[in-house]
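User: structure tokens for this one?
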Amino acid sequence: MCLTAPAKIISLSGQSAVVRTARKNIERQVLLSLIDNAKVGDWLLINGEMAVEKIEEKEAKDLIRIINGDKGEQKI
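Assistant:
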């Protein structure tokens, strides 16, 4: 089973990006090979070191609420 998590792009460099994860607010580098037209501020679903899908901000925030057990929205 694969588990993805929402993350927000904070910087870009070629075919990779630094993202801030929704859980624990950790910055990490991911590959963008599967993502078209990525830009700073976009939300992604990530799995390991790979971005697998670009998602809308509303969907990302809904997922964050689910991950946090409906404890409210985390600032990212």
